Amino acid sequence: MSHNVSIDTSNGDFSSVTPSDSVQRYVISAFAAITWYNAIELVVLCLTTFHRYQGCYFWSLFVTSVSLIPHCVGYLLFIFSFGISPYIPVSLIIPTWICIITGHSLVLWSRLHLLLQAPRLLRGLLYMIILDCIFLQIPTAVLLYGSLNDTPNFPEGYDIMERIQLVAFSVQEAILSGIYVLETIKMLRLRPERPRFIILTQLLVINIFILILDVAVVAIEYAGYYALQVMFKPVAYSIKLKLEYAILGRLVKIARGASASYDPDPLTPSARGFNVTASGYEDSGSNGAGVTVVRQVNSDPFIRRWSGQTHDSLGPC
């Protein structure tokens, strides 16, 4: 495969990702710099915010954040071509891409425990994440490696699979965020008090913005700007991960209000199946000692294993 061709906007495969003008090169470089800055900040936040490094929520956040750095390195090595074998950057891109996409979905799935009391639905959503990883990411990786040697039908197959998986994972994240938004709207309707209303409205706006970022990634891909899309995607994910900490902060506010006194209202976290503890963020994270945290008690053993829940330390939500 030639590594010195210009972008063909009608084709989304890896044979056409070298930018042909300086403007695109500057934009791609800027995207990489933004992603690296956000990723380093995310790693620091993750290591300093959480008191105990365990649970699905922590590890999915941490792995996804770390993966952004080598992911951008791989794309830059491939797009700008430094005379190295294309297999080297692609070998960086593939595993980190899997970690970013599936890792972020697990982040969204983990925090659904805060609002959703439906073990069967949570189990089904987890199955969806696992199956999408197997049936979408593995074939895409195989087709990508095959297209590097101009193997017949592999570039065309990768072009098709790239678009399918991009839309499919956007739909997957839309489903996870959409369920969260619907549950938030339910709480808004049932708890009209202004402090809670403001917090829940902020959560709703943040999740809607996350959905908009997914739409933007798909739109850039289908507009034919493949090189820009592959570099904008890490930027979008780094922004979405930073918004996770904004969401986490607002959930702490809800937890603080709920734990101040006994509230018989069935919509309080304790009545919805959560434990409120004053011991700080054991699994979910904390900005300081003595901060209350909401954690779900889920009796489903499958959910408990995946979310990192144990008898001594209930899982992250």
TrEMBL record:
Keywords: Membrane, Transmembrane, Transmembrane helix. Residues 22-258 form the DUF7703 domain. The chain crosses the membrane at residues 26-50, 57-81, 87-109, 121-144, 164-182, 203-228. Pfam families: DUF7703. This is DUF7703 domain-containing protein. It comes from Aspergillus ibericus CBS 121593.
